[in-house]
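Subject: Protein record for review, amino acid sequence with backbone structure tokens
Why sent: The fold of this protein is of interest and is recorded here as tokens.
Notation: Tokens come from a learned vocabulary of local backbone shapes, not from coordinates.
Attached in line: The record itself begins immediately under this heading.
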Amino acid sequence: MKFLYKIAVASEAAQTWEKMQDTLAMVHCIPGVEEADETSEGHYDVKIVTKLGPVSLRFNGSAELEIHQEERAMQAGVTMSDSRSGNVYGQFTMRLVPDEAGNGSILQIDADIVIAGKLGELAQPLIKRKADQIVQEFSKKLTNYLETAQ
């Protein structure tokens, strides 16, 4: 499944990008993140708790993050597993670009995910709605973080 989202950010791109360098703070903007540890440079172990419809999911997994300073982009490969329902694998790219007016910026999120196991078989109709909800919550947390980060 592929998703593309654009989040408007009030601050200009250079200032926003500087704040985004705190990658653990960025990870904690993701809804449901219960734990996140950087185990080595660019490698994170993550635990996420979420609901998909009436089903509670508890994912354990990892992410490999690459930062591309010149392009103001971050790429992550993510592998998550819930022992009862299945696995999620994905590639995510976040790219920060100036907005057309030049006084703010746009965070573009491009995701390509594969959902395997029972979760993939049974939950396809709910996944798009859940992705939309997660991005809305992420946007709120990110905006709050960017406004309060020094």
